[in-house]
Amino acid sequence: MHKPQMLLHQLADLIGGRVVGDPSMVIAGIAPLREASPGQIGFLSNPRYVADLASTHASAVILAPRYEAATAPPSLARVIVDDPYYAMCQVIRHFHDRPYLPSGVSPLASVGQGVTMGRDVSVQPFVVIGERAVIGDRVTLSAGCYIGEEAAIGDDSLLYPNVTVRERVRLGRRVIVHSGTVIGSDGFGYAFHGGLHHKIPQVGTVIIEDDVELGANVTVDRATLGQTVIGRGTKVDNLVQIAHNVTIGERSIIVAQAGISGSTALGKGVVLAGQVGVVGHVTIGDGVRVGAQSGVAQNVSAGQDLSGSPAIPHRQWLAVQATLPKLPELRKRLHRLEEELHALQRQIKRPGRAAETARRRRATRRRSSRA
Amino acid sequence: MHKPQMLLHQLADLIGGRVVGDPSMVIAGIAPLREASPGQIGFLSNPRYVADLASTHASAVILAPRYEAATAPPSLARVIVDDPYYAMCQVIRHFHDRPYLPSGVSPLASVGQGVTMGRDVSVQPFVVIGERAVIGDRVTLSAGCYIGEEAAIGDDSLLYPNVTVRERVRLGRRVIVHSGTVIGSDGFGYAFHGGLHHKIPQVGTVIIEDDVELGANVTVDRATLGQTVIGRGTKVDNLVQIAHNVTIGERSIIVAQAGISGSTALGKGVVLAGQVGVVGHVTIGDGVRVGAQSGVAQNVSAGQDLSGSPAIPHRQWLAVQATLPKLPELRKRLHRLEEELHALQRQIKRPGRAAETARRRRATRRRSSRA
Amino acid sequence: MHKPQMLLHQLADLIGGRVVGDPSMVIAGIAPLREASPGQIGFLSNPRYVADLASTHASAVILAPRYEAATAPPSLARVIVDDPYYAMCQVIRHFHDRPYLPSGVSPLASVGQGVTMGRDVSVQPFVVIGERAVIGDRVTLSAGCYIGEEAAIGDDSLLYPNVTVRERVRLGRRVIVHSGTVIGSDGFGYAFHGGLHHKIPQVGTVIIEDDVELGANVTVDRATLGQTVIGRGTKVDNLVQIAHNVTIGERSIIVAQAGISGSTALGKGVVLAGQVGVVGHVTIGDGVRVGAQSGVAQNVSAGQDLSGSPAIPHRQWLAVQATLPKLPELRKRLHRLEEELHALQRQIKRPGRAAETARRRRATRRRSSRA
User: Fold this and answer.
1) With bands split at pLDDT 50, 70 and 90, how would you rate the model's confidence at A266?
2) Which of A148, A281, B127, C58 has the fewest other C-beta atoms within 10 Å?
């Protein structure tokens, strides 16, 4: 399964890096610095782990120019690159990528009438493909997948086991869908009339564009009318909810357990962190980034960073969060200030009647602070 | 698949509306105003989209009396109804509803001993039905569904692919369950004893009453003892968690990614917005509405609107949220006030020693504000 | 299915309790106090339900010493135990546990080449087991489960229908996995380079240790390199997200809809309540408890109780939450105080120019309070 080992200078060529150390060193694999053994190359892409350089058993490490002089064993060779995270990605591909080998259509799959089957497909046992569906070349449909009537799966797409693609849904090329994900379930729409919720038929569909990846147990609802759309190159993590008629632009990132309500439109390059919620019928501009657990309840113009529930500009949110734990103390200070001010007022204005007024004021305050 | 076109006055009769424009106009379909083409009817149910009237290519529009005079092309016919959302629902049904056609029991399904099978069912490939289960008339069990032993599925219910219904669970009539949903998984219950979590057997069951709809990848746990109950006509969106021994009253709405903890009871007509959490062992009264991402930690009496985590009355929450972004500014104002008040106190009480005291106080304040 | 009835003194022996009442009373089952009928034993483990003692139809009740004298019908026998919740667990086991009966390997399952199959297994229809997988003794793989190539399932483990276990994932002994759960899906990792998100191959795996239970529709991602680990005896509720390279210590409790981001390490005995989120690359110490809907964004040392988003110590959070609803009122009080103080300043400092200054100050305040 693993490709043969390579020399360090070959690895450096692969990732466009510069070697500091023995270029003819043999590299047999890649691992995180803490877990690497001799003969493997590690990587430093997150500054949190810079201290691991000193204690690693790796023979070499991929790192950025600014860490070239960081403390490390003298024997540790270095490959210096501008983007060590992308370099790591390339090296993992080198050691681990396997060529696609089509397994054909299992005799235990159920293929409906009029299905168009591409070349070199892999259709595993207990897959169901509905009538007139179109399956592209080199598509993998793993065990237990369901492809509805007239659905289309683009070339080189890969569906892991137990994925459900409902009728008429269209997936582009090189789409990856993880297990348990449901694409094209009915949108959540009811007309409340005469004391009952009447189901609004959800007769639209879903378009998943090229190079999208959907995590495990994601739900993407079909549109009421028209289309729910996930744009080219967008990546969606596990357990995300995408409601009917949502559109997501290209190259966006939707992290686990986020939810986007109906008819909301996200621009290109939007990032929703984990557990974010976005209300329905709003527009989120290109490049907007929303912090974890935030709730977006309004339109957001391009390029903004938001946090909080309801979400506000991230910087403002940081300031609020820095102050919030002090709120009980602020309340006490406010109370003390009121007491002192009133004492001062009594002292200045009516030196004679001060004692009587103070008693009354204290009583009032006690009542209002209980409310 | 689509029913034949109809004349505008026929459509108006269907939805109980009044025509303004050419009643003999031919209508071939329905679409949102922005997407509609000539020959189609649009609709205006959400005021956000009123501006779409002016630019639509639709031939006619369904709208409420208050928008009768809104700006629109003179050629745009209008059908005036009191409830345009419900009217839209009826028109979509007209154009898109298909009659139910039973497909019978697939020879690729696995049906256990003693199963009672209703008339005109559709049981697709790779369905498993456990022993002694009862399947009603005109039930659809789509590919990959699992129906456990002694479970019961009521007449006209529709289960989409890859739904799991565990043993002894009972679904009423006209229940719709979307793909990936699990009904009757074990409740999350352990007795912590002797340093270990001992699993409490979950030997109760789940009752889903008539006309309930469950979204995709929902989880409904079976009761420890007794029953978890979802009341008649209640609608549950995708990725919702309903824990053991929960009861939900009739006609409630549970939006995506909400979670209800064990033994909590919701009344009738309750609305939980997206990502809401409700703790265990509380009672939520009839008609309570809870805003998105809120957390309910106490009993709530009927008719209340709540928001926030922990949830407070919605109006109060609005006031808090309006003030919250100003918190850092309030803190500064409080600080300034303290300075000014103390300056005043010094001026009044000890005019002689004022300068010295002020210096000391400023130093103290600087230290404490850094803490 | 139910074991025969037992006498009350036998039941007391089983749970190590002391009988107050007729020890030869026949007990035929267990139920909550509100639902119990004559001949059944109820239990009181949650103080919320103490009032149910007075109205129960149960013949006996299990309770703690401190409720021995609580109001109840004179005929109600009592079994006094220190831990009534654990006692309830034991009694439910007595009445409801069924012996494991292996069903063998269904001829409708698909078993790959080189699979090692244990003794007395139950492999239901439409299960797929990939090549070289190892299935332990007395393992149950329910309908529609997928076990990937070279995966391993330990002795006595039980997978409910429609579970997906990807290639090379290893489950320990006595592991329970509920329906719809996905173990070993790809971690969410991309290197953003040249304007595109490049998928980082996720070539690690997942280790689920002995006695772990995973709820329904849970997702556990495989590591990028190395392993995602869920420690022995840990219990995970429905719809939880566990990202790549996460490690969770022994005997932790992760409640429904919580999410743990990549490379985060949880200690032993950690409790994450429902809908909690934890960011990536942090360390949560042993015994940490995090309140519902909280967001943890930093390392947390052992034994802490946290709440809030971002999370702060629970006690501090309680104080903040108690004050928060008063925030609008505090703002008004602050404003009033400013007015009064400035009036006082004018009165003292510059009796002559007071009126003019006051006007200016009021104008300034009005502008700033609008901002």
Assistant:
1) very high
2) A281
C166 within 8 A of A179, measured Cβ to Cβ: yes
Give the rounded distance of the alpha carbon of B195 from its chain centre.
Answer: 39
Question: What is the third-level CATH fold of A6-96?
Answer: 3.40.1390
- Any catalytic annotation for residue C244? yes
Select from C106, C217, C253 the Cβ nearest to the Cβ of B180.
Answer: C217
For residue C3, give every residue at least 6 positions away whose Cβ sits within 8 Å of its Cβ, in sequence order, or none: C94, C95, C97
Asked if the model's pLDDT at residue C108 lies above 60, the reply is yes
The per-residue pLDDT for C348 is 77
In the block, tokens 């996720």 appear at C202
The catalytically annotated residue of C9, C94, C193, C244 is: C244
Q: Quick one: average pLDDT of C106-131?
A: 98
Name the DSSP letter for residue C4: P
Q: With CB atoms and an 8 Å threshold, state whether B191 touches C83.
A: yes
Q: For chains A and B, what is the number of CB pairs under 8 angstroms? A: 183
Q: A196: which chain B residues are within 8 Å (Cβ-Cβ)?
A: 233, 251
**What are B282-296's pLDDT values in tens digits?**
999 999 999 999 999
Tell me which long-range contacts C61-67 makes (C-beta under 8 A, separation of at least 24). C61/C33, C62/C15, C62/C17, C62/C87, C62/C88, C62/C91
CB atoms within 10 A of CB C46: 14
The four Cα atoms B105, B107, B113, B117 give a dihedral, to 10 degrees, of 10
Among B161, B107, A107, smallest CA distance to C110 is for A107
Report the Cα B304 to chain-centroid distance in Å. Answer: 17
**Close Cβ partners of A101 (under 8 Å, ≥ 6 residues apart):** none
Among C196, C241, C314, the residue to mutate for chain A (most A Cβ within 10 A): C241
Do C256 and B243 count as a contact with CB atoms less than 8 A apart?
yes
pLDDT of C349: 67
Whether residue B63 contacts residue B47, with contact meaning beta carbons closer than 8 Å, is answered with: no
> Are A144 and A127 spatial neighbours (Cβ–Cβ below 8 Å)?
yes
Nearest to B46 among A166, A186, A281 (CB): A281
- Preferred mutation among C293, C334, C344, C357 to probe B, highest tally of B CBs within 10 A: C293
* Set of chain B residues whose Cβ sits within 8 Å of the Cβ of A312: 325
The answer to whether C182 touches A178, Cβ cutoff 8 Å, is yes
- Determine the 3-state secondary structure of B359 from DSSP: helix
Distance CA B205, CA B164 (A): 14
DSSP letter (8 states) at residue C310: T
- Amino acid residing at C217: N
Torsion of CA A311, A314, A316, A318, to 10 degrees: 110
Alpha-carbon distance C194 to C198, whole Å?
9
Indicate the class that CATH gives domain B104-318. Answer: mainly beta
Q: Are B194 and B172 in contact (CB under 8 A)?
A: no
Provide CB contacts within 8 A for C101, sequence distance 6+. Answer: none
Global model pTM greater than 0.90? yes
Map residue B47 onto helix, strand or coil. Answer: helix
> Which 3-state string (H, E, C) describes chain A?
CCCCCEEHHHHHHHHCCEEECCCCCEECEECCCCCCCCCEEEECCCHHHCCHHHHCCCCEEEECHHHCCCCCCCCCEEEECCCHHHHHHHHHHHHHCCCCCCCEECCCCEECCCCEECCCCEECCCCEECCCCEECCCCEECCCCEECCCCEECCCCEECCCCEECCCCEECCCCEECCCCEEEECCCCEEEECCEEEECCCCCEEEECCCCEECCCCEEECCCCCEEEECCCCEECCCCEECCCCEECCCCEECCCCEECCCCEECCCCEECCCCEECCCCEECCCCEECCCCEECCCECCCCEEECCCCEEHHHHHHHHHHHHHHHHHHHHHHHHHHHHHHHHHHHHCCCCHHHHHHHHHHHHHHHHHC
